[in-house]
Design goal:
By secondary structure, the protein is α/β, with parallel strands linked by helices. 52% of the residues lie in helices and 13% in strands. It has helices at residues 2-39, 66-76, 82-98, 103-117, 122-137, 143-154, 167-176, 206-219, 236-241, 252-261, 285-288, 294-297; strands at residues 52-55, 158-166, 181-185, 187-190, 193-198, 227-230, 244-248, 264-266. The strands form 2 sheets. Strands 3-2-1-6-7-8 form a 6-stranded parallel β-sheet, with helices on both faces. Strand 4 (187-190) and strand 5 form a beta hairpin. Helix 3 runs antiparallel to helix 4.
Length: 303
């Protein structure tokens, strides 16, 4: 009987503990499911007409700089001579290596670039842009980022490129990718001819955020429901505007910031090596010609 007396309370205690364990397990599973659901909701949300997506271009949608490739195309078409090519190549190299954006150097580069397009017709540059896209850009679109953009389109949302590249180039790329449109740097033109001046400043850094804010207001978008994608820490102002920021192929500063802010990261580069903006794999004149990214750019973003 002593043995039975010892076993009975043990059985009751074990049963109670089993019930408690079962209930605790079920509750943990429920909380875990809710946590995952809260952390990874359906996105993009289908049918949300007040949501949209904004994509940086260079090294986010396209490997390398669009203006680099455009510069190659302009050099090939003899828009400028070798002397001008060397000057632009040096200016771009300075920006890449300096680590800071010196206002005097930036102004010099913009003035040189604008002098090249001055007097050319807007329609001419647009037509050339179509050709250069096929020659140099189409094969450099990141499939992973393209899929992200398509997901927003499939959800019925609008998708814009946001870039410091000239709006004419950006519009060509956006149309070829089936996107809604593009925000880019605007060069002044009169009667369809470039004057050699900018309308305001290059669409870079904080200016991108202002452009997105203005477009969202005009289109009736709720930025807290929108997404933005970029590779550069220069675009932190734009990424911070939206409710769904993504760091795509991020530079070291953006990667660090994204981790601190718990932003989503995607890296589509082989071996997680940072792509070199404006430096293609091929050498020779075609590679050097990339230094003319300034030729239309009016300005390019710094890493």
């Amino acid at each position: 009987m002593a043995a039975l007396g010892w076993l009975t309370p043990r059985r009751r205690s074990a049963t109670a503990r089993s019930v408690l364990a079962g209930e605790a397990s079920a509750e943990a599973a429920r909380k875990s499911t809710l946590h995952v659901s809260e952390r990874e909701p359906e996105f993009p949300v289908h049918g949300d007409e007040r949501a949209a997506a904004f994509f940086d271009l260079d090294n986010t949608v396209m490997q390398g700089a669009a203006l680099f490739h455009f510069g190659r195309g302009l050099y090939k078409r003899k828009f400028f001579d070798t002397r001008e090519l060397a000057r632009f190549a040096w200016q771009q190299a300075w920006f890449r290596l300096a680590g800071v954006e010196d206002p005097e150097h930036m102004q010099e580069a913009r003035d040189s670039a604008l002098s090249i397009v001055q007097g050319h017709r807007v329609a001419e540059l647009q037509s050339i842009g179509e050709e250069i896209y096929d020659e140099y850009m189409a094969e450099r679109i990141w499939p992973g980022t393209r899929a992200l953009a398509q997901a927003h389109l499939d959800a019925g949302q609008r998708v814009w490129l946001v870039t410091a590249a000239p709006v004419e180039i950006a519009t060509v790329i956006a149309r070829r990718l089936g996107l809604t449109g593009a925000l880019g740097t605007v060069a002044e033109s009169v009667d369809g001819v470039y004057t050699g001046k900018l309308v305001g400043e290059p669409l870079h850094g904080p200016a991108k955020a202002e452009a997105v804010r203005a477009l969202a207001l005009a289109e009736g978008l709720d930025l807290s429901r929108c997404a933005a994608y970029s590779d550069s820490h220069n675009d932190i102002p734009m990424l911070s505007l939206v409710g769904h920021p993504y760091a795509i192929n991020p530079d070291s500063k953006l990667r660090k910031h994204a981790r601190q802010m718990d932003w989503r990261l995607r890296d589509y580069r082989t071996g997680r090596k940072a792509a070199k903006v404006g430096i293609p794999a091929a050498a020779g004149v075609g590679a050097v010609a990339g230094g003319t990214a300034a030729a239309i750019a009016l300005h390019r973003k710094r890493r």
